[in-house]
Please model this.
Amino acid sequence: MKLRKFKAESMREALARVKQELGPDALIIATKPVKGPGGKRMLAVTAAVDETEGQAKSSEEKPVVQGVSRAESAADLAEAMQPLRSELRALRSLVRNTRPSKNVNQKALLDQVAELKKMVANMTRRPPVDREALEQAAKGHTLAKASQARVRAIIGPTGVGKTTTIAKIAANAALLERKRVHIISLDNHRVGAPAQIKAFAKMMGVPLTVVRHAATELPMALEQSANAELVLVDTAGRSLQDLRAPRRVEELMNRLPKPEIHLAMAAGTSSFDIDTIVARYAPIGVSRLLFTKVDETADLRELVLAPARHNLPVSYVTGGQKVPEDIHVATRKLLMSMAIEGQELMEVA
Model:
């Protein structure tokens, strides 16, 4: 699979250049408006062609028009794959929910789904996984442990999706398990955080208490949630550079009645950063790891290696923005399978 980027003043011009450079079988997989010389409004177009079927042309060795380099970096690849994955999910949903009719060619839709799956598979280059080494590292360790505590707090760095994860857990508990759920938000640090969690809570019909001053308002929030079977506590994320953050989080956790603390991290976090994060927060009383964004990395070995290395089991793995679908209760089998086979296990079947 060959990816190329083009800039053009219109979609017509972009299509002509794609066809000239990559041939008639090339596919447009991403477009976005950008600024050109002098602030001129232009389009950035990412196109792909499958070289394995003889579609590559000698012109591919020429510099890309408008001085745009080939999309060979990991960032470009991730950007290009995102709309593909979204389109694939949409098509799958359309095929499942569409009844046969004269106006709908289901075979064509299925063929398009198959083609997109092939493109995603060809574009993904996972690092080789040594199954035996992974199994040996996991031997004798509890990799996963379901969460059972009434009060569960999710802590961790900025940008890992703690609030969305809270919403997914709440939705599953309230809508599917029919439990009485109450959310307490301690995230008054991030701009827009209260509005986001309020929107989630309203959508699910789950009571929410936003705490801005823990010393005076948290006792009242705990009293309001006294009848809940599950209390989920959302916290503000902090930069790894903020060395005082763990102490602030500890002060908040000490105000909660026997909380089960889940340390959330993105699945693509390096082992060095994972070790740094765990070292800073473990003394607070972390009892579970929680991995998010498994759909944004090809290397999922840390789903197994991190809990084994730190003797901290994983409670949940999440990937995607859909509430409540994109979350799974962690099991040893799931973590091992994902670490070896990839995140496709999280995708809509």
